[in-house]
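pasting for ref
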Amino acid sequence: MEDEKAIITQNHEGEEHMVAAAAHIVKALMASKNLNEDVRKILFDLDTHLSTMTILNERKEDELNLNEAELRLKCAEKKITSWESKQSKIWDSGSKYVSDYLQAVEEVQSLRSLSLDGGGGGGDKQRRLLRQADSILQIAMVRLEEELFHILQHSKQSFESEFTSFHSCDDESIVSVEDDDLSEESSRRENNGDESKEYAVDLINPEVIPHLKSIANVMFASNYDQEFCQAFVGARKGVLDEYLGSILELEKLSIEDVLRMEWGNLNYEIKKWIRAMKIIVRVYLAGEKRLYDQILGEFGAINPVCFVETSKAWMLRLLNFGEAVAIGQHLPEKLFSLLNMYEVLADLLLHIDALFCEEVGASIRIDFHRLQRELGDAAKATFMEFRTAVASYAALSPFPGGGILHLTRYVMNYIKTLAEYGNMLNLLLKDQNGGEPEPLIQEENAQNAAPSPGICPLAHHLHSVVSLLESNLDSRSKLYKDISLQHIFLMNNIHYMVQKTRKSELRGFLGDEWIRKHMVKVQQHVTSYERTTWSSVLSLLREDRNSGSNSPWKMILKERCRGFCIAFEEIYKNQTSWSIPDPQLRENLRILTSQKIFQAYRGFIGRNSENLSEKHIKYSADDLENYVHDLFGGSPKSLNNRRK
């Protein structure tokens, strides 16, 4: 058949050449000026006849072209439709089958273009061939969509194990009144210093990129670009839904759901959100953007449109969750979560601006920046609520044993962690006009708490907070009826404040001068405790023969010795139940007290041994020294069963 087609084509071409040559000769002869009318008429008739032959030849050529196109179209159709009954996928069957299929599709595209460019000379047959080509292309495009989805589904790659440093969902509360838990937030922040690191991951097997590009090229060339984009975006959105829902365990929460959450549950969801935001923006969407650039980068504006369509829904869900947290109650326990969320968004701003740099992504970019501002405002408001809570905290009963108040532990651990956010908080707390915010400092403590000029905003506020805490402690100390216990309480709490400041980043904000002044306060309370507790007791051991008493001196000594023992037993009974939690501070006060009592008592007994019998001396000096070391243990004891 091919030989016959070649012969027909060859004869047709020879005839065309002969007619064209004859027409050329006639034209040349007609151009001569020496022709008579008869010759001129003969040449004119011959020219008309040759023109008619040319038109007939052109029609024959069109007929031959349509016949050839029909044969080629049937051949391409056979290759394309042969896959409709097969279960296997073309791209799974080998490169030869892929090449044959794509060539068949390109053949249909070419024949369709020829049919469109051929004008209306072909009549019904040409229109029929055009409809047939469109039908075959539609079958091929549906098949290519299926192949595209199959390739995307079976070439997914997991990258979760590479980013274990982003895990934070199992952490417990950041701030605790228990000292053992206080290093957690610090270590969390120290181990999270990879914000500037770039991650390049392949979300699908790189080997299938050429396959996806070939499908894109064919579908776009066939004017099925919209169908390709819908299939591609749909497949990628499905993968993102699966990743966020199953692997990152993010739930679909409305703003109302978030606002109704208990703090424990909300805190857990915030930690998941922080981790998800890091991975999604810095890793997943960065990889998704690279994939879109590889597949659709040559097709102009359609590339960012498809990328934004893929990522928009989940980005809005993440942003809505953040907005719900920002507009919720300004509870002090939320502050660190707000700061962590703010910090994450600050770290991701450049990534977001790069991912959504085109106009089509402007709304996501704007919403992201707005959420960061809202979280910053919420953090500032929450910090102010914390200060107010410290200032207004009140209690009706004294803290047992004069130990370290829960409020003291909470506030110092709270601001100790705040100090680790120093740079961020300085930016947030800075007054819009460049001035320092006015602290809530009680007048009586203002001279001790007021920071020096030029101090950073956070330091200014921290001085205010510790001043409020001191004012609260002063008020709480007055709930104790025992003046000595008031001093023990203040000594314990101020010492705790100093130790927390000295051993943390708080030192850089409160300053060494603040530490020195408060260590002086601790020593003053130690001195006051000794004076109020032991001065009257030790006065019984002083030998004052001019006391004005008419009793014999020996009787006075016995009464003083007996009075000292009774007073010591009462102090022992009370102060063994008092608490000094810091081991070093407790031991120092015991030693200091023991030295004074031991020296005074031993001297008294030694000087008056002739006037005091053994039955009048209940305790030896060594006994008293040992008993003093039972003080401040937080467990009440009695000397009634220890007498000689």
